[in-house]
Amino acid sequence: MSGGERFSSTYDLVEQMFYLYVRVVKAKDLPPGTLTSSCDPYVEVKLGNYKGRTKHIEKKLNPEWNQVFAFSKDRIQSSILEVFVKDKEMLGRDDYLGRVIFDLNEVPTRVPPDSPLAPQWYRLEDRRGDGKVRGDIMLAVWMGTQADEAFSDAWHADAASVYGEGVFNIRSKVYVSPKLWYLRVNAIEAQDVIPSDRNRLPELFVKGQVGNQVLRTRICPTRTTTPVWNEDLVFVAAEPFEEQLTITVEDHLHPTKDEVLGKITLPMTLFEKRLDHRPVHSRWFNLEKYGFGMLEADRRKELKFSSRIHLRICLEGGYHVMDESTMYMSDQRPTARQLWKQPIGILEVGILGAQGLLPMKMKDSRGSTDAYCVAKYSQKWVRTRTILDTFSPKWNEQYTWEVYDPCTVITLGVFDNCHLGSNAAARDSRIGKVRIRLSTLEANRIYTHSYPLLVLHPHGVKKMGELQLAVRFTTLSLANIFHIYGQPLLPKMHYLHPFTVNQVDNLRYQAMNIVATRLGRAEPPLRKEVVEYMLDVDSHMWSMRRSKANFFRIMSLFSGMITMGQWFNQVCHWKNPISSVLVHILFLILIWYPELMLPTLFLYMFFIGLWNYRFRPRNPPHMDTKLSWAEAVHPDELDEEFDTFPTSRSHDVVRMRYDRLRSVAGRIQTVVGDIATQGERLQSLLSWRDTRATSLFIVFSFCSAVVLYATPPRVVALVTGLYYLRHPRFRSKLPSVPSNFFKRLPARTDSML
Q1: CATH classification of 18-160, choosing from 1.10.10.60, 2.60.40.150, 3.40.50.1400, 3.30.260.10?
Q2: Cα angle vertex 317, ends 312, 321, to 5°?
Q3: Calpha distance 103→76 (Å, rounded)
Q4: What does the pLDDT look like over 691-709, one tens digit per residue?
């Protein structure tokens, strides 16, 4: 588990919440029933109006429960704790076996890291407290906080209305993502692959399958029974290895039919794990004829003569298997633990609570929300307990992660629990998500802040409430952090043997599916819709809104350059004479002392950085609806963004969206064409496509070479600068001669259809 083993949390980021804990361990020597000579005992813990009970154990006089009950101190309305032992009856009222009473004023207090309180045996009393009865029960009762080890598995009194499997779905839990590997299969060649029709030469290719992942090589260029491919197939595999690798050699008969000629199934444990780029040994494998082996005589004949395939297979330990978007990565370590470096810090997150949540479902004819929070960083996922039926839940749970790279992101999501009853088909609803980049946090500082929970719905963006967090990033070595800023973002194998963009997208999708499947099998499960939302599974899908947002992001980047250009234009046109005179003086100084040019530039950036320090953000940034272009988005664009793939909308709607996409693409096409035209005009300067223009340019180039050779560079720079900074009285409103000459150069647009 990647967090919390070596570093103990002080639990100082959250408000301490006190609970009365009751651990029911076991009982002995319980009296048998009068009719059955046995009993089905269970324990009922009662504190005021709150009652909790263990499961009943059939026909046991010495039962064991080992269950913990937790009662919030804020809701305690009694000074007496009663623990009853009862015998469950099929019909009628359950039999009373005995009880134990505790005075809450005498209950000890325990705060970790104190050792757990040892349970003790207590003799059962009768109902009236007049005397002891047969039977003993082992109990431990103490007052503790949410930092107690028993907190996550305890039955909480404020969730007493939950029943059945829903009891497990409200508990806090820590999950660990499965260890993921890239499985590289290099299909080199095959021998003696005989097609079913011996009168034709086969068109052979290799198909590999691991679980639901299916990949295939290209068809061998030459028709032969000894094909050569030398092509890689890359899959995602997870420990413990449950799937096997299936390799088939198939013959492409026609576009709609392929025939399997040979097959082999190999377990994952057979393959070598490599940590670097050194090649592993290749092996020959015998192929089983597909659908073969009905008759023993045929099987003996097959063993004498078999097709073979030459493979080089390994599990890649030097890569980081990406299961989340590269923009929001929370981990960059390679798969092999031997290649991990020491952690550079500790991340502590206190999930305090939420405010102003909106009702997510109807319960008893009124709105209700049963909220829980999920945090994901590195391989470790945490899930808080579910707070029932409140719009302002208070979790006050604190978690710790080891940090190996500060340029990573922790993601926190809030969800509405829809699995408190027997409806297993329900999906937990999204309430919102928060991302915090660790590099934006100052070291050893506690950030306590409320983050808006924003969700994009088909009818628009909506604020669902606010999430209150306390975050602290503690650095172990400042020198190590500065050193990491100069290191590659990913392990070196990503640069020595990189994947293509399509491979990265496909492998990420497969890895996300594996993580969602494995976490969905935990108890309680972290459900697929939660994992997909946290991992941004749909971030690659087309969205008109996202396209607009990215376009305006680019425009904002160029806005600084445009502003500088406008300011320089004002200087050149003497809009502000004082600024123009100062620029002239600075220019003359730099011409006279050119060695000051670069120091002046870097000193200028130094002072800008110091000036901007006053305006630095005081809290980590949160979701920005304006930046996301979510405030003024058209309803149809949102409907398109939430559409399934492939589309499920009507033909008329799809036709309208296609026409809109064509109009947008037409404008992009025009801009790309204009850029290509300028580049081709630049090429045509020396291509002699326009002989007169090229002649003029080469004569100009020769004259310029002679003049520049004879003239000192300082004089050339001085004349050029003064020419561009000349007074408007010496300017013409007509375009300059070089601009006119360049615009007259030919491009290849007249050769396009």
Answers
A1: 2.60.40.150
A2: 105
A3: 13
A4: 898 999 999 999 988 988 8
